[in-house]
Design goal:
This protein is of the alpha/beta class and about 230 residues long. The chain has a single domain, classed as Rossmann fold. Helix content is about 35%, strand content about 15%. It contains 9 helices and 7 strands; from the N terminus they run ααβαααβααββαββαβ. The strands form 2 sheets. Strands 1-7-6-2-3 form a 5-stranded parallel beta sheet. It has a two-stranded antiparallel sheet with strand order 4-5. The chain is globular. Bound molecules: zinc ion (ZN).
Length: about 230
């Protein structure tokens, strides 16, 4: 929240660290240092969950996602509280931990950047899409556009079993027909998809299927955090 209302809000609800709860930080320096890096130096095929190896040409994550870990808590607080500070910390972590080699790969191999869309109803109630925000904060001049739309309000993936997740996501995305035909022409293009967390890869796989169905030659994925198997 911004302005006087935000100040009043922060006064009544002081900021606390998503990791350890210490006051006046969204993520305190000690917790920031303890976030486990994924170690991904480039977009790897080996990081792509097996069922999606035909659809995703490479995947890279910045961090390891741990339940109740700092990244998980900060994301949760960003998505469900009204406090912007958690988002700002996440963008900063995102930008500061992108390796030079990943940035170079984006410059060399990517034509267009997009993200995993939320269902319009959900985006309206939340006021933003955290994956779009990650894409916006990627330090590159490449074209960033909403190439995909979410067709169904899919049940929250986290609550489903693996097999259900795969079925739940099939056909969940379509190409955004509101973009003009020339801009939206994906034929032969190499697309980078941005998302916050990857678990089974079902969401990214379904999104990549829609992009490839529209002619994309390659689809890579960049995520904030990858959940441990
Ligand atoms: Zn802390």
């Amino acid at each position: 929240m911004k302005g006087w209302l935000g100040n009043a809000f922060n006064w009544f609800f002081p900021l606390y660290c998503a990791g350890c709860g210490s006051e006046d930080w969204a993520i305190c320096p000690a917790c920031k240092k303890n976030i486990q890096q994924s170690g991904d130096e480039c977009f790897g095929q080996e990081a792509v969950p097996a069922p999606f190896s035909e659809l995703l040409d490479g995947l890279a994550a910045l961090f390891v996602y741990e339940k109740r870990g700092v990244v998980a808590e900060a994301l949760h607080l960003y998505k469900y509280s009204l406090i912007d500070d958690y988002g700002r910390e996440l963008w900063q972590l995102w930008r500061n931990n992108l390796s030079q080699s990943l940035l170079m790969e984006i410059e060399r191999n990517i034509d267009l950047i997009s993200w995993i869309p939320l269902h319009p109803r959900k985006e309206k109630s939340r006021g933003f899409n955290q994956s779009a925000m990650l894409a916006v904060h990627l330090p590159t001049e490449k074209l960033k556009l909403p190439f995909l739309l979410r067709r169904r309000d899919t049940a929250a993936q986290m609550s489903l079993q693996r097999q259900q997740r795969l079925q739940n996501m099939q056909g969940a995305f379509v190409i955004n027909n509101r973009l003009d035909a020339k801009t939206a022409d994906l034929r032969g293009k190499s697309v980078l998809l941005v998302d916050d967390v990857v678990t089974t890869g079902a969401t990214l796989g379904a999104a990549a299927a829609a992009l490839k169905g529209a002619g994309a030659a390659a689809v890579f994925a960049l995520v904030l955090a990858r959940q441990k198997e």
